[in-house]
UniProtKB/TrEMBL annotation, chain A:
The chain crosses the membrane at residues 20-39, 51-77, 89-111, 151-181, 201-221, 241-262. It comes from Prauserella endophytica. It holds the Pfam family MlaE. This is ABC transporter permease. InterPro entries: Permease_MalE.
Automatic annotation (TrEMBL), chain B:
Keywords: Membrane, Transmembrane, Transmembrane helix. Pfam families: MlaE. This is ABC transporter permease. The chain crosses the membrane at residues 20-36, 56-80, 163-183, 216-238, 250-272.
Amino acid sequence: MSFEAPPSRTALGDAFTQVGMLLNFSVRTFSTLGTVLARRRLAWREVLEQAWFLASVTTFPSLLVTIPLGVVVALNVGSMAGQLGAEGYGGAVVAFVIVAQASPLICALMISGVGGSAMCADLGARKIREEVDAMEVMGIPAVERFVVPRVLAAILVTALLACLVMAVGITASFAFQVIVLGDSPGSFLASLTQFSRLEDFLVAELKAVCFGILAALVSCFKGLTAKGGPSGVGDAVNEAVVLAFILVFVANTVLTELYSAIVPARGAY
Amino acid sequence: MAVGILGGYPARAARPVVDAFAALGLHSTFYARVLLHVPTAMRRYWRHVIRHVSEISFGSASLLAGGGTIGVVFAMSAVASTQIGLEGYRGLDLIGLSPMTGLMSALVNTREIAPVVASIALAAKVGTGFTAQLGAMRISDEIDALETMAVPSLPFLVSTRMAAAFISVIPLYLVGLFASYAATNLAVVNIKGQSSGTYDYYFHLVLTPTDVGYSLLKAVIFAMIITLVHCGYGYYAGGGPEGVGKAAGRALRTSIVAVTVLDVVLTLAFWGPRPTLPGLGT
């Protein structure tokens, strides 16, 4: 089994071919995941290695992005709420923005941008050196050996990273609002606990996991379809990153809207 | 110019720290030289600058990867700002202030979301593209070949890209900003069903030309940083095809972190620690 794009003449035809191949690839990955789990031959070692690699490259940059983001949220919310006469509203907005939106998105950007590009480069280099084809010839399916462990590792790492980002983001926002802007810590915490819900947290985790799956699938797909020598690997990484970012942003809107349509907002100020 | 300039140092323990400082120095010198050579590049290689402008704006990649940067910037800004509209409405509705969603669109889109999202789109599309191109040239010894032919590789390859990025970011960013405003408007008026008059009133009340100017300035600064960082990682790439891909990832990480940190600094510099809302008389 190989992933070779058929030659296409038009840009539109190329786009549809790619979408179809990506869907085919995703379905194949999940069916392989099912088979692998049922037959108990999952490459645990590879999962752990990939998870450790992803965690080690994404954690520190995620935190470096989260702290300024918490400050920006506090800065804008503090000014707006203050002028509208709702100073204590800051905590509630932090619950909305950081828990529900920012933490899954930051995880997704880091997993697809930093982790995904490394995955794509790794697989692309193996593809153009024909290592992947050699493995297929020896009866080791690339999807089972490469893709399934990477998807599982991405799920694990995004789920854990999202919690870390939430904690750090809320702390940064709280610290900026209380220490720099001099607002009341009590009203911040009161509105934070009044408006935050367990469902928000669970949905944020679910979103982070979905983004992790998307990023891993797109990166592995682009890596395994790389062609054209060293510059082909670079192009594959470029396309993988762009595609993953767009998919993540679209998926974020869709998931958020589904959630707010199913679960109504609670609490009154 | 070799990358491994510190090959012979004996102190093993201090190696990572020394290497980090050496890389910092290498990249900083690179940035300074790129910026200094921009006038030369504009004068001598203006044809290449024009070619890069068209490549950056409309691109040659497949339609699936967004069909050029303009498509990527438009799509990502529109989706992110739809989110602002929907979530902002929901948030303000809790305190009975949903009519003021227009105010949030004018404020948050202009000051934070549009510059940051457009920069992330630029970094993903243009930036990693630059790293991939320059890295492929580096590992297939094309940059050394240029130097051998007495073509100064840095102005020819990097300063031309820098000038092209500077020229194309302004229209690209304005397209992104337009997409942000249009998407938030669409989300609030058509999806949440707020009256368009109320939305427009608060939107125009708070939107000032100064804010739009600062917002554009933010985007231009971010684009400069992104181009420099990504070109630097590509120019000094090594380690075969895989090394190029890894360099693209590292460049993306560095530029996203730099953009978010600079965003706070610039927000504080432009609007102060207690930003005020124009038009509300407070």
